[in-house]
């Protein structure tokens, strides 16, 4: 440190102009050279440096402005997308509700249709049962009548002789003749 302060103090003791000499003290020489270079850089480079910094500042501001515009556009698009999402969700809910009500309506239609079909089948079954019962009853009546007729014929044949048979036929013929006369 002593050499640095000595070099500044020794500046006052420099020889007058016209003499030229070498300074062997490296620290004081470097410090002087560095201060001269910094002074020249500051003097001549101030304009260039300020232009570079201004350009850089403008680019940063433009980038920030563009980013803000993009951010605003993105926020606007996000709001539109959210609004569209809400609309689509409402439509989906409506479709869901409509679908459920349609399913419920179809379910009740199917239940009613099935009930009516079962009712018709029950009626057909009852009609078929009644028809079969009536047919069976008629068959039984016919058999009973045939058996009764056979018995009666058997009894008549065994009880009637020719003379009784002729008298019955004559009585029936006279009844038919009297009926014929009445109708004429």
Described by the principal axes of the CA atoms, the overall outline is rod-shaped
Main sheet makeup: none
Radius of gyration: 68 Å
Pick out the low-confidence regions.
7-16
N-to-C series of helices and strands = HHH
Straight-line distance between termini? 176 Å
Question: Which structural class fits the helix and strand makeup?
Answer: mainly alpha
Strand content: under 5%
Task: Give a structural overview.
GO terms for molecular function: proton-transporting ATP synthase activity, rotational mechanism. The chain has 184 residues and is mainly alpha-helical. The chain is built from three helices and no strands. The protein has helices spanning 2-9, 26-159, 162-183. It is rod-shaped, with a radius of gyration of 68 Å. The termini are far apart.
Question: Brief description of this entry?
Answer:
With 184 residues, the chain is an all-alpha fold. Helix content is 89%, strand content 0%. It has helices at residues 2-9, 26-159, 162-183.
Topology overview:
Blueprint: H1 2-9, H2 26-159, H3 162-183
Keywords:
3 helices, 184 residues, mainly alpha
């Amino acid at each position: 440190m002593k050499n640095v302060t000595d070099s500044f103090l020794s500046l006052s003791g420099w020889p007058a102009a016209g003499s030229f000499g070498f300074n062997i003290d490296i620290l004081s020489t470097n410090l002087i050279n560095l201060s001269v270079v910094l002074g020249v850089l500051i003097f001549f480079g101030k304009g260039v440096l300020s232009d570079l910094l201004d350009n850089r500042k403008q680019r940063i501001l433009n980038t920030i402005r563009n980013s803000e515009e993009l951010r605003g556009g993105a926020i606007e698009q996000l709001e539109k997308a959210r609004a569209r999402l809400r609309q689509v969700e409402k439509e989906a809910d409506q479709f869901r509700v409509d679908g459920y009500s349609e399913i419920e309506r179809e379910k009740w239609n199917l239940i009613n249709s099935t009930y009516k079909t079962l009712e018709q089948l029950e009626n057909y079954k009852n009609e078929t049962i009644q028809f079969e019962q009536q047919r069976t009853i008629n068959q039984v009546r016919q058999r009973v009548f045939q058996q009764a007729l056979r018995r009666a014929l058997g009894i008549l044949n065994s009880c009637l002789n020719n003379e009784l048979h002729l008298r019955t036929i004559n009585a029936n013929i006279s009844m038919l003749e009297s009926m014929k006369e009445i109708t004429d």
